[in-house]
Write a structure and sequence with these properties.
Number of domains: 1
Radius of gyration: 15 Å
Distance between the termini: 14 Å
Number of helices: 1
Structural class: mainly beta
Largest sheet: 3 strands, antiparallel
Strand order of the largest sheet: 1-4-5
Length: 69
C-alpha cells in the first residue's frame, strides 16, 4: 500500500509494512463528558520525528524518523 496522506513515506525498516503504525501522539481536544465517560469529542493530534513508533505488523519499535523513507 502506498501511503499518500498522513503516513506518506512510512515503511517499517524491518519488515517493509506500510499499512498501520502505533505512534505516540499528543492530543488536544474539547470533550462533552458525563459520569459514564466521553459523550462527544474530537480534536487534533500531533507527532514529531522523535515520537515513538511501532510497526502494526511485526512490532518493530523506533522513532518516526526511522520509519520515514
Amino acid at each position: 500500500m502506498l501511503n499518500t496522506n498522513c503516513l506518506e513515506g512510512f515503511e517499517c525498516p524491518k519488515c517493509g509494512h506500510t499499512d498501520t503504525f502505533y505512534i505516540r501522539v499528543t492530543s488536544s481536544f474539547e470533550a462533552l463528558m458525563s459520569d459514564a465517560g466521553i459523550i462527544d469529542g474530537g480534536g487534533d493530534t500531533e507527532w514529531s520525528e522523535n515520537s515513538d513508533c511501532r510497526c502494526g505488523d511485526c512490532g518493530f519499535e523506533s522513532t518516526v524518523q526511522e520509519f520515514k523513507k
